[in-house]
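Researcher: Good morning. I'm working through a list of sequences from a screen, and I'd like to move beyond sequence-only analysis. For each chain I'm collecting a predicted structure so we can compare shapes side by side. This is the next one on the list. No need for commentary yet; just the structure.
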Amino acid sequence: MIATPNKYQMTPDEYLQWEATQEIKHEYINGEVYAMTGGTIPHNAIAVNLIAALRPHVRGSSCRVLGSDAKVGITEKGSFFYPDVLVTCNAQDRQAIQVIRFPKLIVEVLSPGTEAYDRGAKFAQYRRLESLQEYVLINSESIGVEIFRINERSKWELTSYTNGDEIELVCIEFKFPIALLYEDVELPPQEAQNDGT
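Model: Good morning. Structure tokens for this chain:
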């Protein structure tokens, strides 16, 4: 999803009340509201493939997997984001109606327009979540996954995966082939990517 600014200034409570009545989703950062525009079909298909793989793995556990309609709150005062996929294993999140507060795993499927933001400012916000153990970035234009994991020294480490690799989500003890993410996904031709078309 791509965020575009709508220069509305509001408090977190005003945002949560207002946003619940809107037809489209909005993220909330520093008092400003940003409308979410639609992603590509490959973007959506990758997210659906991951959710389909995660759901049976967490079934019967304290964890649950949620998609892009689940809002994550960084603090009570914001920011608020809609990641593509998340997993929470916190009992307090089981009762959540509007906002997930304790995600363990957050996944963003990268789009050309939001990739720099997802890697930079948005990841900086997500790192404020004490519950977060892994942040996953999935390429939607070629086969590739990057996972940032918090280590025992509270530092974020990067592991990259490419075609043929097995991905490991350590925080939920789940392994799967990278090909599963791209099953039935039509990626743009490499020459189109290189031409910027």
